[in-house]
Specification:
The complex is a heterotrimer of chains A (about 290), B (about 160) and C (about 775). Chain A is α+β, with helices and mostly antiparallel strands. Chain A has twelve helices and 14 strands. A five-stranded antiparallel beta sheet of chain A has the order 4-5-10-6-7. The longest helix of chain B is centred in the C-terminal third of the chain and has 19 residues. The chains are: A alpha+beta (about 290), B alpha+beta (about 160), C alpha+beta (about 775).
């Protein structure tokens, strides 16, 4: 196995293009190294992208955040401006694994590992984040909800990798939140997760709302009907009920060692309600 | 082909050869004989191999040894200064905050990293910070108390 | 600390453990930390099937790989004749053990060892494993205990006939044994009852969850002498088992204990050691073997899963008149679950005139069960203590008051046989009732549960040696691995008797060649039994020291006393012997004094080295009782339970080093909470374990738990010089029911199946809501 540390996007793309099929991006390694050890992954080329400046930056300009794909959870959660602006995303990232995992795990890795239960992904989807992807044909931008196509698979073409994640300029009175259910308080993979981002109008009504779910389908899900159910409301009981109904209707989970279809569906709706109320509270407290 | 790596381990420049797939934990334990970092799971779930990589707490089993080239690694073996124990080590002894001792090195390294970042953590902050360090013997009670005591002591010291 | 304890200088103090610095600096050498030059890497090939016949084994491709030095399978183990399988009528069964080490004709669980290889590197060994060809014929398997007991269940062993049934059954089954014990006349007891309650309970197998995987390294000489370094709960056990399995003489094997990273009963048997020895013999090289975490889960432990049916009857004023239970325990692939211990402990805290306990030991296609802290007791107590809670609710009696009314006391004849001597169960109940925790009130969606537990504690064969060095410092030599601070206890007891500073006492743990035999570290025996041997050895040494002083002073031995680490005496004078409490005269000042240091310095002139050794089979371990209080909060929308507050109260006899006694209570509680809430094995339809790691086998993490308050009640064990009772096992027994009882208090739901995981509790809450509608 080769190990390479390209220092530019162009170098990385060239190395990926020149490699056999089993080239693999190494960012935090918290999933990849476990997979290599168990034999589930057996790359011939490891491309450590942490030496590429664009993957390591946290940038804020013109009201927009751009987070490098290889920025660790610990680093992002030390950025007070980001935490204040996107607390739901920051908290979702922080929920992943232990402090030790936080020292390594990355947004890019969480997306590309393509687990249906990836905690940051529903939060990124709710936030309407977009991935900056570099590849042999140059760069392109892809919405967060379009990265994971099935468990363990992404829409990235051969030779492509995620450089950074871009967040929209945040409107006034916007709030986001992400909650998940795990049996313990830490260290588990989500049994279900729900991210909500909403913006209030001057009347305090929901002007926009995005609701995304984790671990209740083969990929994280953007549930448009759930968001629509909130629009125009102040998250009164009726609106929350119809959002929860839309959430439950959208769930397509499986029975596995971490949860049952029934339990996941039930809990996804509970979490979506709680996330929505948390997001509302944040939006109301932000002018 | 083996890779040549030079990293600073516990303040000393160390050279070693490794395969690209070797983890930092493999190299620490098998090549450098630094066996204070333990392998409880090999998958980042138990924290017994906790080390500090350039000021970040990580599991040595989830870092490739090649990644440490040119970087600093601090392990449990570097925690005491000469024959003087770190206050956390001392307090763990005084409070019986260990039983079998297998998780102790990882917990000490993690707790040190916590107090360097957050000198005055709440009980809840200590518990969540250490959630990745499994201990099956103690029920965590005396560990958490020892960490909180060291924190409040250094706070008092600084207040004087 | 009570007044009596104050008379001690070291007993009951929180001294720093002698092995502490090694353990906080990373210097301590655990199982996987030790190696030898030229060591080979040994790995095990394990069955991918839960139950299958082995049709063909072909090692030729593996042996052809460069660097492969040994490949072994069951053919390399000499068959133990059936009449030699069991030594002295006591478990273990060595034929089963051999079969578990390397499967013979059949694999009986996923993870069952089939072959092992030793090679020059892990990478080569791994390739060798892949090159081994095993042809299996997959058989139907059975995982659950009740299914395994059905007449048409797949049979694990064609020749297994249930023992304990008269007449013996003519057909084989998966039921290895039926046990029954009790007192009185249960039918009459139920006839006297005003209230009779019955319920069924199940618990899942749980792993001991020690953080250190099994590890050892073996070396074998051409002269047949073997050496083994390993972490275990008893290196004499490892020596004996290896000798028996490999047809060696015991003295040919020398086992050096390495530090043990947790055991909890799970390291009271051998998995790797005989394989490493065998491959070291074949290869002529040292062989090191270390399990992965996955192997630990697939092939070691666990504690038995269980199905328990309990019936209990009481008068309306809360006097229990009868109790009976049927307990079915999973033994794993080979017989030998601790179901008898479940039967014995289930109602042991209570004085019940009529008790009948029936147990079944049942084999299933899971790893052979292993001891886990109070083996057999937690699951039984989950059932019985949940029933007591139901009874208290039904009779509208405070659950502690109900227990008090029926509590076993001195003189109570336990259903399992003996009459209790001095025990402290009542004292734990009193302490619980008056504890601020019990006085407080739980809030909304919160609940409180209490439960009690009993464990026998054991003594057993024990050796200790005390050696005085040339400068008067002292080596205390014992032979039991120190899992949780026992070196500290040994040093404390020796320093107390010798009357010297504890820092002048150095406890060491010797290899099997350097001290007499010791039973393994288990059954909460070490502080009691080894402590007894150390205390006796120290007393013997004091006598020698007095003799030397008498010799130096040329006075009679009767004229010498030992006090505060020195001999005092006066030519011809009479002295006060404090220890005997006998006043025979007054010591005239200034007395002659010789310190331990002085006597040691002169040892050569007075007869040579000073040491003493004691070998005993310690009897009279005092039973232990505990009572726990648990508060929980239930998230009614998700079924998730949070432990808010926990108090563990236990009669510990005498706490030699209170930190480590409290630590035993806290650790046991944490394990019990894990058992109650989240720990379980998840098998798929093929009988393969789906969660062989700490990610999905969910032991409690630091943020899952509150501080665990402890109250140490000290009712001294009259059979121990310092009153010690074992303390390690009791604390894992009450939490299962304490948690379930707290959930019942919070929700009105009686959860009878463990673990009470969020999906399970939410489903129960849903049913409750539906039935209310």
């Amino acid at each position: 196995m080769r190990y390479e540390t390209p220092v530019s996007i162009a170098d990385a793309v060239a190395l990926l293009q020149g490699s056999p099929a089993r080239g693999q991006i190494l960012a935090g390694g918290t999933d990849l190294i476990v997979q290599m050890r168990s034999g589930a992954a057996n790359p011939q080329l490891l491309l450590d992208i942490k030496h590429i400046p664009e993957t390591r930056r946290i940038e804020f300009s013109d009201g927009r955040f751009e987070i490098g794909a290889a920025v660790s959870g610990a680093e992002l959660n030390e950025n007070e401006a980001f935490k204040t602006t996107w607390p739901g995303v920051a908290e979702a990232f922080d929920l992943i694994g232990s402090t030790q995992i936080q020292g390594r795990a990355t947004l890019g890795g969480n997306l590309c590992n393509a687990s249906p239960a990836a905690d940051t992904v529903p939060a990124l989807i709710a936030a309407d984040a977009v991935c900056r992807i570099a590849g042999p044909d140059g760069e392109r931008q892809v919405p967060a909800e379009s990265i994971i196509t099935q468990p363990g698979r992404t829409s990235l073409a051969a030779g492509e990798f995620i450089v950074s994640i871009r967040f929209p300029r945040q409107m006034n009175r916007t709030g986001d939140a992400y909650l998940r259910l795990i049996p313990r308080t830490e260290m588990d993979i989500a049994v279900a997760g729900a991210g909500v981002c909403l913006t209030l109008d001057s009347e305090g009504r929901c002007a926009t709302a995005r609701v995304a779910l984790g671990a209740v389908g083969p990929t994280p899900l953007l549930v448009n009907d759930a968001g629509a159910a909130l629009i125009g409301s102040r998250l009164e009981a009726a609106a929350l009920d119809s959002m929860a109904e839309a959430v439950a209707a959208a769930c397509r989970p499986i029975n596995d060692k971490r949860g049952t279809i029934d339990y996941r569906t039930r809990v996804a709706a509970v979490l979506a309600r709680r996330s929505a109320l948390m997001a509302l509270n944040r939006a109301e407290n932000r002018t | 082909m083996k890779r040549h790596v030079v990293s600073t381990i516990n303040g000393d420049s160390m050279e070693f050869l490794c395969d690209a797939g070797d983890t930092l934990l493999d190299v620490l334990r098998n090549q450098l004989q630094l066996t204070g970092s333990k392998e409880g799971c090999g998958s980042g779930d138990c924290g017994a191999c906790s080390v500090i990589l350039d000021d970040r707490l990580v599991c040595a089993c989830l870092v490739l040894a090649v990644e440490t080239n040119g970087r600093q690694v601090d392990t449990i073996e570097g925690m005491a200064r000469g024959d003087k124990l770190h206050p956390l080590q001392q307090r763990f002894l005084e409070r019986g905050a260990l039983q079998c001792g297998i998780c102790t090195p990882g917990i000490l390294v993690a707790a040190k990293s916590l107090l360097e970042r957050n000198p005055d953590p709440s009980e809840s902050e200590v518990r969540y910070w250490l959630a990745g360090n499994l201990c099956r013997c103690t029920g965590y009670d005396k560990i958490v108390r020892a960490v909180l005591e060291v924190a409040s002591e250094s706070k008092e010291r600084n207040a004087r | 600390m009570n007044a009596e304890a104050k008379k001690y200088r070291w007993i009951g103090t929180r001294t720093v453990r002698p092995d502490g610095i090694d353990k906080v600096t990373g210097r301590a050498t655990f199982g996987a930390d030790f190696t030898l030059p030229g060591a080979l890497c040994g790995l095990v090939l394990r069955s991918p099937h839960a139950h299958a016949l082995i049709l063909r084994k072909d090692f030729s491709k593996a042996l052809a790989i460069d660097g492969v030095k040994a490949v072994i399978c069951s053919d390399d183990l000499r068959e133990i004749p059936p009449d030699e399988a069991v030594v002295g009528g006591q478990p273990p069964n060595f034929r089963d053990m051999a079969n578990n080490l390397l499967a013979k004709d059949k694999v009986l669980y996923e993870g069952h060892a089939v072959a092992a290889v030793a090679a020059i590197s892990e990478e080569v060994a791994r390739r060798a494993l892949e090159a081994i060809e095993i042809e299996y014929q997959v058989l139907p398997h059975v995982i659950e205990v009740q299914k395994a007991m059905e007449p048409d269940a797949p049979l694990l062993h064609d020749n297994l006939r249930t023992q304990g049934i008269d007449p013996p059954p003519e057909t084989p089954s998966n039921i290895a044994q039926r046990v029954q014990l009790g007192v009185g006349d249960v039918e009459r007891g139920f006839a006297e009852a005003d209230v009779i309650l019955q319920d069924e309970f199940t618990t899942q197998p749980v792993h001991q969850g020690y953080i250190e995987p099994h590890a050892c390294i073996a070396r074998f000489g051409e002269d047949g002498q073997a050496q083994l370094w390993c972490s275990s709960q008893g290196h004499f056990m490892v020596r004996a088992y290896c000798a028996k399995l490999l047809f060696m003489e015991i003295a040919q094997i020398r086992v050096t204990p390495l530090e043990i990273g947790g055991g909890f009963g799970g390291k009271t048997t051998v998995y790797l050691e005989p394989l490493a020895l065998l491959m070291a013999r074949i290869s002529g090289r040292p062989v090191k073997m270390t399990m992965s975490r996955e192997e630990v889960f697939r092939a070691t432990g666990p504690a038995s899963g269980s199905y328990i049916n309990v019936r209990i009857g009481a008068t309306s004023d809360g006097r229990i008149t009868a109790a009976e239970a049927i307990l079915c325990y999973q033994a794993g692939a080979f017989e030998g679950s601790p179901v008898r211990l479940g039967c014995m402990t289930g109602f042991a805290p209570y004085d019940i005139p009529n008790v009948r306990m029936i147990g079944y030991d049942v084999v299933v296609n899971r790893p052979k069960s292993a001891a886990y802290r109070a083996p057999g007791a937690p699951m039984a107590a989950f059932a019985t203590e949940s029933m007591l809670d139901q009874l208290a609710l039904k009779l509208e009696i405070d659950p502690l008051a109900l227990r008090m009314k029926n509590a076993a006391r001195k003189g109570t004849k336990a259903a399992y046989g003996p009459r209790f001597n001095d025990i402290g169960y009542v004292e734990t109940l009193e302490a619980a009732m008056s504890h601020p925790h019990y006085q407080s009130k739980p809030g909304l969606n919160q609940g409180r549960g209490v439960a009690s537990g009993f464990w026998f504690n054991i003594g057993g064969q024990s050796s200790a040696g005390i050696h005085v060095t040339e400068d008067g410092t002292v080596i205390v030599n014992t032979g039991n691995p120190d899992i949780g601070g026992s070196r500290a206890s040994m040093a404390i007891m020796a320093a107390e008797v010798l009357g010297i500073d504890i820092n002048r006492v150095r406890p060491i743990i010797s290899d099997t060649g350097s001290i007499g035999y010791n039973d393994l570290t288990g059954g909460s025996r070490v502080t009691f039994a080894i402590g007894m041997a150390v205390t006796e050895a120290a007393r013997k040494l004091v006598e020698s020291l007095k003799e030397r002083a008498a010799l130096i002073w040329d006075i009679s031995l009767d004229s010498v006393i030992w006090k505060d680490g020195s001999a005092y005496g006066e030519p011809g004078g009479e002295v006060e012997d404090e220890r005997k409490g006998k006043r025979t005269g007054k010591l005239k000042a200034p007395p002659m004094q010789l310190s331990l240091h002085d006597i040691a310095k002169d040892a050569a002139r007075t007869g040579g080295p000073l040491s003493s050794s004691v070998n005993i089979n310690a009897q009279g371990a005092g039973p232990g009782f505990g009572t726990h209080i648990c508060d929980v909060e239930v998230d009614r929308d998700t079924g998730k339970v949070t432990i808010l507050r926990y108090t563990a109260i236990q009669d510990v006899g005498r706490a030699i080093q209170p930190d480590y006694v409290e630590g035993q209570l806290q650790g046991g509680v944490a394990q019990g909470i894990g058992w109650a809430l989240n720990e379980e094995y998840i098998y798929n339809d093929e009988g393969r374990l789906d969660n062989p790691g700490f990610l999905d086998y969910r032991i409690p993490v630091a943020s899952d738990l509150p501080m665990i308050d402890t109250v140490l009640v000290e009712v001294p064990n009259p059979n121990h010089p310092f009153g010690v009772r074992g303390v390690g096992e009791v604390p894992i027994i009450p939490p299962l029911a304490a948690v379930a009882n707290a959930i019942a208090d919070a929700t009105g739901l009686r959860m009878t199946d463990l673990p009470i995981s969020p999906p399970r509790l939410l489903a129960a809450l849903d049913n409750q809501a539906r039935s209310k509608r």
